[in-house]
TrEMBL record:
InterPro entries cross-referenced by the UniProt entry: DUF1206
Any single Pfam family the record assigns to this protein: DUF1206
Record bears the keyword rRNA-binding: no
Protein's recorded name: DUF1206 domain-containing protein
Native source species: Arthrobacter parietis
Keywords: Membrane, Transmembrane, Transmembrane helix
Regions that span the bilayer: 30-51, 71-96, 117-137, 157-175, 206-227, 247-268
Length: 275
């Protein structure tokens, strides 16, 4: 092996050791807590909307709500650091996957963790923006982005692909909840009533999040087909659109409680996630 190869190997080994260090793992686990808190707040806002109140049941609304609480700035920074640490950990899994994987399994593992890394990095950046006193976009920014894409030659095809992609992710969430596939990622889960409660939270939460994402995907596709960007209004619009259905208030309330369950499960997951 050349000197350059040996140096590259040393760098790779150092990066892998850093990703496996206890302090880094603890920080990465905090990312699950941050994601859980985000979903709990979205669910609480959605319950308020279902009860006739106001608010934006989406990421922007949840972060804005957190920023307005006592010690909100500290909490936002803690969530930002946790999400970014988790994103880096997942990215390390892309470059250093388990050696037992090979072929198709290895590719799927890398792609899944790469996608998750981007999601948590985006959430972490969002927390940091609010901690700095800025604000992320809501439904309005989603509509503006959709309008800009619709006006470009390849934009509609891209939006359709995004909508279909969201539907696929939504289906996976529902499937994972119904089959309890999410338990594959847990280690050391307690037995008895406590373990059953964790499984129940995960089942309800995954299905509820799948429903919310499914509605969002349908709205994106509908907005593209009808060339109406106002119909593409993000998670806020997706959840509020549930109210327009028969018994919509109850449907929105049930999905909102499910999102809260998912959030609590994510907090618990931070303790039992296999890493």
């Amino acid at each position: 092996m050349s000197d350059l190869g040996r140096q590259a190997r040393k760098v790779a080994d150092g990066a892998e050791d850093a990703a496996d260090s206890k302090p880094f793992i603890i920080a990465a686990r905090a990312g699950y807590v941050a994601a859980g808190l985000l979903h709990i707040l979205i669910g609480v806002i959605a319950v308020r909307v279902a009860s006739g109140g106001s608010g934006s049941p989406d990421q922007a609304g949840a972060m804005s709500s957190l920023a307005s609480t006592p010690f909100g700035g500290i909490l936002l920074w803690a969530c930002a650091i946790g999400c970014c640490a988790l994103a880096l950990f997942l990215l390390s899994e892309v470059f250093f996957p388990p050696q037992r994987l090979d072929g198709k399994e290895d590719v799927i593992y890398r792609l899944k963790n790469g996608g998750k890394a981007m999601v948590y990095a985006a959430i972490g950046i969002g927390f940091a923006q609010y901690a700095l006193g800025g604000g992320g976009g809501g439904g309005g920014s989603t509509q503006s982005t959709s309008a800009a894409l619709m006006a470009s030659p390849a934009g509609p095809a891209l939006l359709l692909a995004i909508g279909v992609g969201i539907l696929i992710v939504a289906g996976y969430f529902v499937y994972s909840g119904v089959t309890q596939k999410f338990e594959e990622h847990l280690s050391g889960k307690p037995s008895g009533s406590t373990g059953k409660a964790i499984t129940t939270l995960g089942t309800i939460g995954y299905v509820a999040k799948g429903i919310a994402l499914g509605v969002l995907g349908i709205l994106v596709i509908t907005a593209t087909v009808t060339h109406d960007p106002e119909k593409s209004s993000g998670l806020d619009g997706a959840l509020k659109s549930l109210q327009e259905q028969p018994f919509g208030v109850y449907i929105l309330g049930a999905v909102a409680l499910g999102l809260i369950a998912y959030g609590v499960f994510m907090v618990v997951r931070s303790r039992y996630q296999r890493m």
